[in-house]
């Protein structure tokens, strides 16, 4: 079956117009940065000079001794500070803009104290006034908000349908994410503060990752964004590192081969007992594809979802969850349902189908349910997957699971610190419980990573990831004018032909829920 990207003549023309406007903003910003750099360089030279003798005599009469020499030192320091700020001003960092304005005003005042150097103070004050007047254009675009362009979402779906091999690939299709296209591939991201949080690995054909990452990093530099890639696999680590980025393992994903899974034998005795217990108590486990679900059953599933969400404070997840954006029943997804002895639907699991694999999305239970119900639902899903020849089934992602399962490494101090942190986190997020639940199914453990720019930037990167996942609140912004909004990418969308873990996925997301809440 041929999948064609929708026509985008109108949207492309609109993007070109918005991109032209954004380019003018970048021109203003860079001109301002060059102006500040020029004035700061001149100030460094001026600080080393003697100053106007007539002005010096007048200043000496009205100021205490030693002020002149102190003024020269302060001028040099302020000028050097402005030079340091120039790259950040070029990128539109808010702090850099404010500090540059203050620095120019201070330089003008110091030039007057140095010897009434009006010819130097006036340009500095004029540039400061211009920066204030054009502050809106100087600042980088405010936090990007997903525009929900159906043509981009459709193009991303087509690429994922053909090339979405990774278990997280289906989850880039959350409509609250922005999409970036290049080289025939796509990546999904959302900007929080000044950081673009990329959702999992890029998706696309072989050879598309390099141009896609290069193009996105260029876009990030143009907007003044920092970049963090969250939940990526080991597949592209070498490419990330070649771009100067760093990688840190943040957890493990449990992936089961259905062909090897069995309920026979002593090692799975407790798992087998859980499945049999549910059956003995009169519960019925049903498995069906999305295409087999009629309107009545869909209403029942929606009712379970509504009841479950009503009991939650708020939904968590970003890179490995569809969150509040499930787009209804999908024909190829696998649903495993649990009915009570009275016939009421009390449990729902959804496994997203992608490239011949399954990735667990949601685990929902409402009302009174027997112990072992989740285990029984997963066992039925694995049984169906084995019968259909599914290559693999991705279960829960366990944040910091590699530390829970093994002994910490490093020096004695680092090992003690790691154990202490795990003890604190374990009581709050039930990390050990989730790992033990996954281990019941004898999975392969695959590492997941966070990709960040620098060691000093790691705390900020983790902070933004936790904001994306819903663990930390996002600062409310004042509504920005149209000129502040980032334009969609001007890159042409690809023409493609072709035929996850679920709701817990942050550094602590998988361990924040009980095993019944992904």
Please outline what is shown here.
By secondary structure, the chain is of the alpha+beta class. It is 47% helix and 16% strand.
Helix fraction by DSSP (H/I, runs of at least 4) = 40-55%
Q: State the end-to-end CA separation.
A: 34 Å
Count of structural domains: 3
Spatial strand order of the main sheet: 1-2-3-4-11-5-10-9-8-7-6
What is the CA-atom radius of gyration, in angstroms?
Answer: 29 Å
Please tally the helical runs, counting DSSP H or I stretches of 4 or more residues: 17
Topology (elements, then pairings):
Layout: H1 9-48, H2 53-62, H3 67-91, H4 94-115, H5 118-133, H6 135-138, H7 150-163, E1 178-182, E2 185-192, E3 195-199, H8 209-223, E4 226-232, H9 237-242, E5 246-256, H10 269-280, E6 284-289, H11 295-310, E7 334-339, E8 345-354, E9 357-365, H12 373-388, E10 393-399, H13 401-405, H14 412-429, H15 431-439, E11 444-452, H16 458-469, H17 509-512
Parallel strand pairs: 3-4, 9-10
Antiparallel strand pairs: 1-2, 2-3, 4-11, 5-10, 5-11, 6-7, 7-8, 8-9
Helix pairs in contact: 1-3, 1-5, 3-4, 4-5, 10-12
How would you characterize this protein structure?
- The chain has 518 residues and is of the alpha+beta class.
- The protein folds into three domains: 9-138, no CATH class; 150-255 and 402-502, no CATH class; 267-313 and 322-397, Gcn5-related N-acetyltransferase (GNAT) (Aminopeptidase, 3-Layer(aba) Sandwich), CATH 3.40.630.
- It contains 17 helices and eleven strands.
- Strands 1-2-3-4-11-5-10-9-8-7-6 form an eleven-stranded mixed sheet, sandwiched between helices.
- Helix 1 (9-48) packs antiparallel against helix 3 (67-91), helix 3 (67-91) runs antiparallel to helix 4 and helix 10 (269-280) packs across helix 12 (373-388).
- The longest helix has 40 residues, at 9-48.
- It starts with 8 loop residues before the first helix and ends in a 6-residue tail after the last helix.
- Residues 1-22, 141-148 and 477-518 have low confidence and may be disordered.
